[in-house]
């Protein structure tokens, strides 16, 4: 079969792991299951990921990185910091809501992985907070915002909008009022950042 | 035994239900279990609570009301709205953290009840939001705050502080940075309410 003749990259292993997770749930996403799905020996998967935990960590990181990479584009835009902050928070909410609502087969197993995995989730949050701090810092520099420390302000904004991105709130994201609630929270936070 | 000679009030039934929950968890808190704990017939419990669902709803409501009643005292104080808002939010965080940390035998079963019960939880949130709106309204009246609509602002403050009262965040409440995070969020929200 084709799978065995292509070079076995970490990326191919992670794609296959996502597929296994989607089909069979987190309990079945072991190195042996993934090797079987790829039609390779489990030794060749172990050369890339030495443990099941390392494989799960990598697949979680890849999933989270897709969101941060899209948000980094907004964070880097050269325009009004207020509008950029609002759009960035809306894009974060949209990305999380999309994953929860449109891809439930993958969201449920990922929630289990997120529970298991330490560093990937923490790094993701640090990454997002740094992007927020860059937007707030730019706003402080051009007089749009006031914040004694952009990183502290970024963490506060991140925590204050948890209802709209933390997976523990996923069930609330289909409520009819949720978009108005999001707008009211973001309006208040932007007012809090005014000089 | 003493239990059978006292008048069987709804309050006594609810006390016994809490005790049964604490000892045996939510699966065991049925009308029959509670009647057995009280040494009465289950018919006499049914006269107060017609279904297991009604009993669970009432016990959840009683537990939540204890928090709202304490907070109502702060909301009604006659002093600076900014300090009152800060103290009210701190008292809410403290009450929830206390329940999660110091009474885990009751917190775990209650989380199951909170999942089950519709109206009690929604009414609790409405009650808390109304208290917040009263504080914000008083601040608007005396020029401490600006808010086009105190109830909308109250909901935004409640949602923006969810990390510090929503039970889905309970595991984060023992993190060393949590108190600084709380202060940073509340500072930002109070700045957002400035005229």
Automatic annotation (TrEMBL), chains A, B:
What sequence ranges are listed for the domain HTH tetR-type? 7-67
Q: Does the keyword NADP apply?
A: no
Q: Where is the signal peptide?
A: none
Q: Per its UniProt record, what Pfam families does this chain match?
A: TetR_C_27, TetR_N
- Tell me the DNA-binding residue spans: 30-49
- In the UniProt record, does the keyword Transcription regulation occur? yes
Ordered alphabetically, the record's keywords are: DNA-binding, Transcription, Transcription regulation
Name the chain's protein. TetR/AcrR family transcriptional regulator
């Amino acid at each position: 079969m084709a799978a065995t003749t292509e070079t076995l990259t970490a990326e191919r292993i992670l794609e296959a792991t996502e597929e296994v997770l989607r089909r069979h749930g987190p309990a079945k996403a072991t190195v042996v299951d993934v090797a079987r799905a790829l039609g390779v020996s489990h030794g060749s998967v172990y050369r890339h990921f030495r443990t099941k935990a390392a494989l799960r960590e990598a697949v979680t990181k890849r999933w989270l990185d897709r969101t941060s990479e899209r948000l980094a584009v907004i964070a880097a835009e050269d325009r009004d910091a207020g509008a950029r902050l609002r759009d960035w928070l809306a894009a974060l909410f949209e990305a999380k809501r999309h994953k929860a609502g449109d891809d439930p087969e993958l969201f449920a197993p990922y929630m289990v992985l997120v529970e298991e995995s330490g560093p990937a989730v923490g790094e993701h949050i640090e990454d997002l907070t740094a992007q927020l701090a860059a937007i707030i810092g730019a706003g402080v520099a051009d007089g749009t915002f006031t914040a004694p420390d952009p990183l502290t302000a970024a963490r506060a904004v991140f925590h204050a909008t948890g209802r709209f991105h933390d997976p523990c709130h996923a069930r609330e994201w289909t409520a009819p009022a949720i978009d108005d609630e999001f707008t009211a929270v973001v309006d208040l936070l932007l007012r809090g950042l005014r000089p």
